[in-house]
Structure formats: C-alpha cells, structure tokens
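Exercise: predict the fold of this chain.
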Amino acid sequence: MTPRTTINFVCTLILGLLSSRYLPRYHQSVITTLRDKPWASLGIGFIAAVVVPLACTLLFATVLAIPLGLILLVGFFILLYWSRIYAIGRIGESILTRLRPASSRTAAFVLGLFIYYILAVIPVIGWLVVPLVMLFGLGAELIARKQFYVTARSQDLI
C-alpha cells in the first residue's frame, strides 16, 4: 500500500465510523436504499456524475456564476467522497449478514472497508470497483436525501 492509499483508508474509516455513530438513521437509510434500489442508485449516480460537472462547466462559462460553480463543484466532490462510505457499508452488510446475522453496523462497515480496499488495489478490478462504488453510493445518497426532504416537507419541518 502506498502512503496515499493508507491515508485514504484511514480517512474513510474515520468518516464511516463518525457517520454510523452520529448520523445512524441517515446512514442506515442510505444503506437501505442501496439494498432496496441498487440499480436505481447506480443510474441516478451515473446521471449525477455526468450532469453536475456539465452544470459546473456552464456556470464557469458565465463569468458571473463562477463562485456558484465553485461551490457546486466542491460540494459535489465532498458528496462523491462521502458517498463511498454507504456503498462500503452495504458491501460489509451483505457479507456479514450471511456470516453473523446479528452483527453491528460498525462491524459491517469495517469489513466492507477492508474488502473494498483489497479489491481497489488490484489493478484491473480496482479500476472497475472504485467508480462503481462511488456511483452506487452517490445515487443511493441522492435518493435518500430526496426522501428525507419529502418527509421533512410533509411534516412542515422545512
């Protein structure tokens, strides 16, 4: 493992543990979305990965909207990095529920993280796994955020 991979592993581990600890309902809702709607998650993730950079390019082209484009681009990259956490958690959950049905969310995430990074360092397989994990996670997170927004609007919370 290179130092960059090690740092990336540790950062993902910390973010995943923080997410499952301090955002447990949201964390689980994204993983449930990924479990229930995997192909919709992949499709929406792919569409978002194409549309958002195009929108940023258009915003950069209109000189007055460059700050908005920068904010959107930075937010997109943060969301893209963070969304891997949910797909990694789903990988671990799918394996751990077969081995030990009464396992914790944290154990599932850690197992998924190890499997993800083992697959990610294999040259040809890693080139497929890393983008797919990001797209699946991005789509599931966008679906879960929309459901959260709709629920909050229906209860007059926002």
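Check your answer against the key: The chain has a mean pLDDT of 90.
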